[in-house]
Write a structure and sequence with these properties.
Chain C: This is Phosphonate transport system ATP-binding protein. Chain A has 287 residues and is an all-alpha fold. Chain A is 79% helix and 0% strand. The radius of gyration of chain A is 27 Å and the shape is flat. In chain B, α3 (63-95) runs antiparallel to α4 (103-118) and α4 crosses α6 (136-161). The chains are: A mainly alpha (287), B mainly alpha (261), C alpha/beta (254).
């Protein structure tokens, strides 16, 4: 202990100004710091790149504040009836559901090919790359591209939304497949079961609830995607009504009503998915 | 598992499947979705893509203007994300169980987050478009509001996940609230938060395309323009530049994540 | 006057379960006291009542002549700077360096702004290095805490408590997560702190043999009540029985 007293000063690192340094200066800190600085710098630069055509700050802010007040405090319907509104919400939910369920079916097979413990490495890699590419194209572009071939309508919307649903669920499903206890697979393999037997009797039963939960989580996302597709790609549903109310009729009260309708569904879906997460994913989240 | 329970499980799964089939049928009915048609559409669409989405040399002339709009979109996404991140940090500190000041602000912060998250970004863009007009600010604000809600929830989770014990230790040394937040909570949750920020930058570039179509700004507006005038070669070029940008940013942020997490 | 007086202390988190009931004892400056008892006896709550990490339900804790229970926020901060605390799980900030973690012990003396900016004086930093040297971990000063072994992390925890220049150190199961070798090193250091620096130590332990070996005085706690309070060498077999009940045999061998 006494000898330490002598060696201590040697160990102290000093900054250039002679003050003692207390930071480690390791790679992690440097990367974190520089990432933050770069993001901050880019943010500042962004405001010089922006296009401010026709922007009048004062007017825009006061007007938006007024609009928000009208929207949220005086919601009303004028261009269509309440039952019609429910019908439109139903269409949006329907679009979201179809994209989710078809996506889940396709994703199931692709995930079997992507899971490292069930597939060949090369197949797994190809599927993963494909998924990454699909994810990089925004959903709205997929929908619009399909709309050229299929015409605007529910087919184009569902098919377009399918891509991101598949990409999301392949990742989720293949990860839960990979977490299947290798003992189960080994035991089935030892009995001489074929690959399909292993999948149906070993992998599916032990991951079924996870797949179901992930599918529901995707449905929550797909609902808001379906709203967006209605507005931006003319796919119908409540999103399209929102677009019409704000873009054509400038009816803020109706915009308010539609926003509340969307908000209500979104909140219900969020509460349900949070429950699902807490129930099925609480262990994996801590691990 | 005994036989009775297995049979019960089987019954449950059967019921789930029947319910799913029923909802699928209902959804198809309400949306006029035709399964056969859509299956037939796929080869047609792929055939169309192959024959029409070709990049020709004359479309490359538009590259500079595309890059200009793309850059605007990327900047818009980054700026919206960082701004939202700063505000979200405060909201998350108020909202988290570990660092909340009092229950009122905690509930308020969570409410703001939920409100801005659950109203889709399209709704925000349309609302803002009315008074802000067609410029970058509209897109920026729409992305900002959506990101704010998402990041607040993610940050609250990051803070709650971080080690509670060091908070206790610093309290015991007589440190103030700000000492504790700054020296124990943030250092521990920062890598996780940064990872969420990077994720949001990626997501926002994709959303910015959507927002752009609605608000007439950035790469989205450009896509819309050529799409509507049926100049599909340029549409293809724009799509590919978006794909390349998103993949590049994803690769970069994965690299950063690998180091910091 | 004694350093710490505990008078009629009671603690309950809800009406049904009283964690502590009518606790009375006094601690003189320079004592090394071990509090033993089965898990759930209230050892942890007792320590946390002393620096008011949990609120006191009834009775009084008087530290250095001041009533802890009635302190306001700023007084409480001052109290806590005078009381160091050491934890079972070390409670360091894992991503920060050892030296930063040690300096966290100085926050009690800092204004919010000084602390947030991370301003530590050169004297403080030198003192931190000196303490790390004394505990034999100076060469790890610039490492991240999560790269250290449990025993080393606990030594960082001790440094963090010592740099506060406390009059009293509360140790909550300091060796419960450590192997026997590291446990011995930590207990030796704690003993040395009392012997050489004259700092009072109050150590929660569940190992009776360790308590008997190191402590001058032992307080036995069972179901929230003091069942033994006396010099270590007076703790006979039958007394241990009354503290631990039937669990005794398993616990002694731990």
């Amino acid at each position: 202990m006494e000898s330490n007293q002598l060696t201590v000063p040697v160990l102290i690192k000093r900054k250039r100004n002679g003050r003692i340094n207390i930071r480690s200066g390791n790679k992690v800190d440097i990367v974190i710091k520089s990432t933050i600085w770069i993001l901050a710098l880019l943010t500042v630069m962004a405001f010089f790149f922006f296009d401010y055509t026709g922007l009048q700050w004062e007017r825009a802010i006061t007007e938006t504040a007024y609009n928000l007040k009208v929207m949220f405090l005086e919601p009303a319907l004028s261009h269509f009836s309440f039952s019609e509104a429910i019908h439109q919400v139903g269409i949006t939910l329907g679009l979201g559901f179809l994209a989710t369920i078809l996506g889940a079916i396709i994703a199931f097979f692709l995930a079997l090919m992507a899971a490292e413990n069930l597939s060949k490495p090369i197949v797994s890699k190809i599927v993963r790359m494909l998924v990454a590419y699909i994810r990089a194209v925004p959903t709205v572009l997929w929908v619009l591209i399909f709309a050229i071939a299929a015409g605007l309508g529910s087919e184009a919307a569902v098919l377009g939304m399918l891509f991101h649903s598949v990409a999301y669920l392949v990742k989720a499903f293949s990860e839960s497949f990979e977490e299947v206890n290798p003992g189960i697979i080994e035991a089935l393999r030892a009995t001489g079961s074929s690959w399909w037997h292993i999948v149906i009797h070993g992998v599916v039963p032990s991951t079924f609830t996870y797949m179901l939960s992930w599918t529901f989580l995707r449905f929550e996302i797909n609902f808001s995607v379906a709203v967006a597709m209605g507005a931006a790609a003319g796919a119908g549903g409540i999103g399209f009504e929102l677009f019409m109310a704000s873009g054509f009729y400038f009816d803020l009260r109706e915009v308010g009503f539609i926003t509340y309708a969307i908000l209500a569904i979104a909140v219900v879906l969020e509460i349900m998915s949070t429950r699902l997460k807490n129930r099925y994913f609480s262990n994996s989240a801590n691990a | 598992m005994n036989e009775k329970k297995m049979r019960q499980n089987k019954l449950q799964i059967t019921i789930i499947f029947i319910v799913i089939l029923l909802i699928t049928y209902l959804s198809a009915a309400i949306t006029n979705f035709n399964f056969l048609d859509s299956v037939l559409t796929i080869p047609e669409a792929i055939g169309w893509m192959v024959s029409n989405l070709m990049i020709t040399s004359e479309t490359l002339d538009r590259m500079p203007s595309i890059m200009d709009k793309l850059l605007e979109t990327v900047f818009m996404s980054i700026a919206a994300t960082t701004f939202a991140a700063v505000i979200s940090l405060f909201l998350a500190l108020l909202g988290s169980q570990t660092t909340k000041v009092n229950n009122f602000f905690s509930v308020l912060a969570r409410f703001i987050a939920s409100f801005s998250r659950n109203i889709p970004v399209v709704a925000w863009s349309l609302i803002l478009l009315i008074s802000f007009g067609q410029n970058s600010m509209t897109g920026f604000l729409a992305l900002f509001v959506g990101t704010l809600g998402f990041l607040t929830r993610a940050f609250i989770e990051s803070i709650d996940e971080a080690n509670q014990s060091s908070v206790e230790a610093l309290t015991a040394t007589g440190a103030t609230y700000f000492h504790i937040v700054n020296k124990a909570v943030i250092p521990q949750s920062l890598p996780q938060m940064l990872s969420w920020i990077l994720f949001m930058v990626e997501t926002n570039i994709r959303s910015a395309t959507l927002v752009g179509i609605l608000t007439g700004t950035g790469i989205g507006a450009m896509f819309d323009l050529y799409y509507k005038s049926m100049n599909y070669q340029v549409v293809a070029l724009i799509t590919i530049t978006i794909v390349v940008t998103v993949i590049l940013i994803e690769l970069l942020s994965n690299q950063i994540r690998r180091v910091i997490l | 006057m004694s350093l710490l007086q505990v008078e009629g202390l009671g603690k309950y988190y809800n009406q049904q379960t009283k964690v502590l009931k009518d606790i009375n004892f006094e601690v003189e400056s320079g004592e090394f006291i071990s509090i033993i008892g089965p898990s759930g006896a209230g050892k942890s709550s007792l320590l946390r009542c002393i620096n008011r990490m949990v609120d006191i339900s009834e009775g009084h804790v008087v530290f250095d002549g001041e009533d802890v229970g009635s302190m306001k926020k700023s007084e409480l901060r001052r109290l806590r700077t005078n009381i160091g605390m050491i934890f079972q799980h070390y409670n360091l900030v894992p991503r920060l360096t050892v030296i930063e973690n040690v300096l966290h012990g100085r926050f009690g003396y800092k204004s919010t702004l000084q602390g947030v900016l991370g301003r530590f004086t050169e004297d403080e930093k030198e003192k931190a290095f000196e303490l790390l040297g004394k505990l034999g971990i100076a060469d790890h000063a610039y490492k991240r805490c999560d790269q250290l072994s449990g025993g080393q992390q606990q030594r960082v925890g001790i440094c963090r408590a010592l740099i506060q220049e406390p009059k009293l150190i509360l140790c909550d199961e300091p060796i419960a997560s450590l192997d026997p070798n590291s446990s011995k090193i930590i207990m030796d250091y704690l003993r040395k702190i009392t012997n050489e620096m004259g700092i009072t130590c109050l150590v929660n332990l569940h190992q009776v043999d360790v308590a008997k070996e190191y402590a001058d005085r032992i307080i036995g706690l069972n179901k929230g009540e003091i069942v033994f309070d006396g010099p270590s060498n007076m703790l006979y077999e039958d007394r241990i029985e009354s503290i631990y009940g039937i669990q005794k045999r398993e616990l002694i061998t731990v």
